[in-house]
Amino acid sequence: MVISQRSDVAAFVVMDVMQAAADLESQGHKVLHMEIGQPGTPAPDNVLNVAKEALDTDKLGYTVALGIPELRQAISQHYADRYELEVDPQCVVVTPGSSGGFILSFLTCFEKGDRVAVPAPGYPCYRNILKSLDLDAVDVEISPDNDYLLMPCDLEKLDPPVKGVIVSSPGNPTGSMYSEEQLKELVEYCQANDIAFISDEIYHGISFGKPAVSALQFSQDLIVVNSFSKYFTMTGWRIGWLVVPKEMVRPMERLIQNLLISTTTLSQLGAVEAFKCYDEFDGYVGQYKAKRDLLYKRLTEAGLNKISSPDGAFYLYADISHLTDDSVAFCQRILNEIHVAVTPGVDFDPVRGKQTMRFSYAADMDTIDEASKRLKTWFMALKIT
Ligand SMILES: Cc1ncc(COP(=O)(O)O)c(C=O)c1O
Questions:
Q1: How many Å apart are CA 36 and CA 213, to the nearest integer?
Q2: Is residue 52 part of a domain?
Q3: Is 63 part of a structural domain of the chain?
Q4: Among 172, 206, 265, 348, which is most exposed with the fewest C-beta within 10 angstroms?
């Protein structure tokens, strides 16, 4: 059979590393996982209990396409409780992870061939999903010189102009965050220039100074993408949400009906409960900070001096240009030699990422402690040889 051009997208390299780690594990090796952005903590007990009860008592049929009303209401209440923002539950769309939310957002906002700006380094799937939908992802270089933030002046330079932009704050892989003024300026620039603004807020709740600002604070004429995968520690439940302008709800509903029917019922029931567990989730943030500090200390002691100093999320992004210009082979070596899975920078930035790598400190403290010790020893040995 002929394979379509649109399916010829780059791999999500993190997942390839995870597979390589799984292959090692199947041979009996213990691998320490720092490749994947997956909290080491499970969903809270009351989420699990509701799911267990639902397995016994609920028929677990399809739900309505936009999500069960209790969950859409709970998400709306989340904006009232955490941001003091009024969000109409009718504008909340429940999705299979934020990943499902991107597909729906891109399909709803753009026509075939439209140019959409994505930050480089940035979350790789933005670029790859856009390509699979026959859209033109335009990489916009961001760097430590601009705090790894995409600014209006970066968009101004693009010729022809873009029809949309997607950013995340806190960002992946750098953890950098927009201040209130910076985000406001970017949103206002996009609105003045008819650029659809998509704000990936999946790492909200995981920040070490000020809380992250939602783009909804400045306008409701944009899309906010969020998920239960990170702050809510429910990665495998595959559930997220969008907040969209009122006129987009029905087109999204039609897309969901046809593409997905609905999001997993069990996950929707569990997700309602997650909003009762803020104390548990907030407790994890202090642990992420302790893990970040430990990892940062050990990596700098090992001679990695150019590392992003993140305000949020759970990643460190390191410049390894003094050590390699092939980050894929470099990370493969680390996996094979010390059984620590880490991600080459090419996932996030196809060009400059050949000389960078990302460490996730989302796993539990014991894993980060052991992995960072192994990494320190390995990098120090590299300096000596
Ligand atoms: C910035 C960002 N957005 C979205 C996702 C996808 O998350 P999910 O589909 O689990 O909601 C990730 C996963 O790592 C991410 O880092």
A1: 25
A2: no
A3: yes
A4: 265
For 130, the domain range is: 59-277
pLDDT digits (tens, 9 = 90+) for 230-267: 999 999 999 999 999 999 999 999 999 999 999 999 99
Which among 220, 242, 277 is the end of a domain? Answer: 277
Do 161 and 266 reside in the same domain of the chain?
yes
Which of 15, 202, 224 to mutate for ligand 1's pocket (most ligand atoms within 8 Å of CB)? 202
* Residue 319 sits in the same domain as residue 370: yes
- The residue whose two tokens read 């943030």 is 285
Residue 98 Cα to ligand 1 middle (Å): 6
Report yes or no on 181 lying in a domain.
yes
Checking if the pLDDT of 168 tops 70, the result is yes
For the Cβ of 172 lying below 6 angstroms from any atom of ligand 1, the answer is: yes
Cα 173 to ligand 1 centroid, rounded to whole Å: 11
User: pLDDT tens-digit profile of 35-81?
Assistant: 999 999 999 999 999 999 999 998 899 999 999 999 999 999 999 99
pTM confidence score: 0.96
**From residue 190, how far is each of 50, 79, 102, 113, 246 by CA, in Å?**
42, 23, 18, 19, 19
Q: Are 292 and 272 found together in one domain? A: no
What is the dihedral angle through the alpha carbons of 300, 303, 308, 311, rounded to the nearest 10 degrees?
0
- Looking up residue 376, the CATH number of its domain turns out to be 3.40.640.10
Boundary (domain end) residue, out of 218, 249, 277 = 277
- Residues 336, 306 share a domain: yes
